[in-house]
């Protein structure tokens, strides 16, 4: 049986404590990595990420991560490493504009991953990512 890609969804929240109570406690989604601005949850093997939005009147469309302005909400897939690399190459060769160019996060650390962000023609933000070791998708 071929393993299917895992779904990834990032969404805005106004309170990370409330998000942890709802997703972590009520829905019993194990928590993965986190920062003061976001929390990963394991939703039945799929990665969902609550991004803190400080001011509902401010730009709700971006959250700072690793020095980049990550579009929120966004969705995407967690691909196998070679598939992610091939997709990044195909998009570059096609002249696709990126919101965030393909790069490696957490290099040499737990959860090392390749990631890239782009918009579809309707302005929907997508993230495609891949983990060096898929068993560490939710590792802290």
Automatic annotation (TrEMBL):
<dbReference type="InterPro" id="IPR004360">
    <property type="entry name" value="Glyas_Fos-R_dOase_dom"/>
</dbReference>
<protein>
    <recommendedName>
        <fullName>VOC domain-containing protein</fullName>
    </recommendedName>
</protein>
<dbReference type="InterPro" id="IPR029068">
    <property type="entry name" value="Glyas_Bleomycin-R_OHBP_Dase"/>
</dbReference>
<feature type="domain" description="VOC">
    <location>
        <begin position="5"/>
        <end position="131"/>
    </location>
</feature>
<dbReference type="Pfam" id="PF00903">
    <property type="entry name" value="Glyoxalase"/>
</dbReference>
<dbReference type="InterPro" id="IPR037523">
    <property type="entry name" value="VOC_core"/>
</dbReference>
